[in-house]
Amino acid sequence: MATEKYYVPESSPWPLTASIGLFMTAIGGAKFIQQSTMDTMEPNFFGKPLFFIGLTWLLLVIAAWWRDTIKESVGGLHSNQLGGSYRQGMLWFIFSEVMFFAAFFGAMFYTRWLIIPWLSGEGSNAMTHELLWPGFQAMWPLTVTPDGSTTTPMGAWGLPAINTAILLVSSITLTIAHHALLENQRGKLIIFQAITVVLGAIFLGLQGLEYVHAYDMGLTLDAGIYGSLFFLLTGFHGAHVTIGTIFLLITLIRVIKGHFSPDNCFAWEAGAWYWHFVDVVWLFLFVTVYWL
Amino acid sequence: MSTAAATHDDHHDHHHAPTGLKRWLFSTNHKDIGTLYLWFSFAMFLAGGFMAMVIRAELLEPGMQFVDPEFFNQMTTVHGLIMVFGAVMPATVGLANWMIPLMIGAPDMALPRMNNWSFWILPFAFAILIGSVIMSAFGDGNPSAPNFGWTFYAPLSTKYGPDSTDLFILSVHMMGISSIMGAINVVVTVFNMRAPGMTLMKMPLFVWTWLITAFLLIAVIPVLAGAVTMMLTDRHFGTSFFDAAGGGDPVLFQHVFWFFGHPEVYIMILPSFGIVSAIIPAFARKPLFGYASMVYATASIALLSFVVWAHHMFTVGMPLAGTLFFMYMTMLISVPTGVKVFNWVATMWRGSMSFELPMKWAIAFVVLFTCGGLSGLMLAITPVDFQYHDTYFVVAHFHYVLVTGAIFSIFAAAYYWLPKWSGVMPNKTLGELHFWNSLISANLLFFPMHFVGLAGMPRRYADYALQFADYNFWISIGGFWFGLSQLLFLAVAVLCAMKKGEKAAAKPWDGAEGLEWEVPSPAPFHTYDTPPVVK
Hints:
The structure holds two protein chains of two kinds.
Chain A lengths: L13 H24 L9 H28 L5 H40 L6 H7 L26 H24 L3 H31 L7 H33 L9 H26 L1
Chain B lengths: L1 H4 L14 H6 L4 H29 L10 H36 L7 H27 L25 H29 L12 H32 L13 H35 L6 H14 L15 H29 L8 H24 L1 H7 L3 H31 L5 H27 L14 H29 L38
Helix pairs in contact in B: 3-4, 3-5, 3-15, 4-5, 4-6, 4-8, 4-13, 5-6, 6-7, 7-8, 7-9, 8-10, 8-11, 8-13, 9-10, 10-11, 11-13, 11-14, 13-14, 14-15
């Protein structure tokens, strides 16, 4: 509850300019996707350049925005109460991310438990099966789709298992770094955070390798619902690991610059929470997408 | 800018209201951002209303008159999207921005810059959506705007969607980013910024209902983002989420959509419950009956809203156990809703009532929202829904809860708090005209829809069988009448913005309670820099 004076920032140009960046990214992105995937679209259209201009614009604005926030933090304008607002805000943001993944996990369970049995005639669906997809057999991973295209499932105990180990270790190294931060042991903090960032980068490299491998063996984005779920779940996870790695890299630079102290370290902790969140999502992924 | 602010130690004692364009474009002030939200939502209300009048003009008589069926579909689609995402939601966010900090004794929203970003995303998102309509009406070759209904079911929106669908998808993403940030801001403000002594169970109900609304938003808007993302990859990257040939299912879309869509309904109506719970005690001059039960009822409605989504899908095919589960859960919602209606009526019971404009709208809300709730109960009964599904009965139902429910309560809020916002009383004559014209025309517009619906007239068609002609004529007359009546509110709002009218006291309604009435009218640019103490 408010017991001290509260910091209200003065007016800022970044929200409006960030919206303009988002606007360009959205229009450019939609047109770019259409031009790259549809034969009917005319080439030489504005989509691709607009998308990249918008994206660069957006990233620059966000960087400038955060530079302002960092200056305020370093300048001592952030009260404990604002720290509380930031912390709660970050936690609710992570909750919204959880719900985003929940949509895809939900789609996967609906597919595995209901759609595929129904398409193969279970329940009251014998006639659907007979008339629409007479040869279709229920299975998971779905290697033969109702329209007959085939694919190969991704095994759990190769690269994915190694990646699981990497992420678990990275969570431990990050926790060691967190304790070092709270105990003001800068050397230990820098070493263990750097290890975490490197582990994140290795994870991403291996994930890329796994995708190449998947495409080689015929597991593609358009290989039916298994491929769709596999790539969207692991792909969005990978995107979040990328963001998390960048996040940790930036807080690492800020650690080296001496921005954090045990009682002023919101940004660092936000990065750490985000990292643990992507870790937990991966564990669910590993168990439900790769293993079972 | 905050870079400059970093050099001040205690800057908020001496910064004044910025002036000119910069004040509005770069704002970090909850009142200014609230005002922006409210004006934006009213503009969207008029734009969406204009599309509704195109629909009603076409349906004035049987046969095709003004637009072709393709354009008619675009009108029903974009009308719905604009009213849901552009009019009702931003209006309640605007009210939250203005009122929550004042009601809990906070100096501003918890995250003021993010607050402004939440707002400024919206005009751009709707520029994309409305842009595709303008292209469709006037552009070269009339490329189709979104035409699949506001629920954008697959495969209408995937395999058969027009090119503008991709722009629509990204504009929905933008609206979602805006909503999530706005909701996080509300939750954090309520949890972290309350004045000393303002315990949770002392908060005004408007704050409570918005807190619960914000939870719903954070939980379900990401699911909508997931749904439109799957649409995008199905359309362009060969995935099979909504395509049975690849092992997916178009019905999966409906499940994901309505998992968002049903809580969305409560996102639109819960703030209204809070508004009415503020206004009725003020004009009945009695404390709200059953405050705690109101809080628990709101929370129950929110929780139940997560387990009722498939009642929108009874006719699509579902195992019997699923159908029964969703039917009973839906009917269960009428219990907490009934608690609320009972409490409002009990608050009025033996009160010393007076009927100023906000109270008129609030009473109209209670009666007409209940009417919409009862038709909802009818729709919840599965075998009956088989008959009503996709008829005008459904259209009547959700317009009773959204227009005479949500929108009427937003007008109630506007008349109640306009003195606080502008410092002048809303013009009484224009206000009375606005209320009575809206009340009569809305019922002329929506009540006969029940009859044509029960008689079997399907929704979303540009034409209808001859036996529906008389009712449709009167529905259309009601539609134009209601639409034009809203211009009266435009006049009221403009007069208030120009400070033309009787000067308002700090507390213009003698029965009103709450911290917002302790600051002068209009509320100064900065309020509660040091928090008040609530006893």
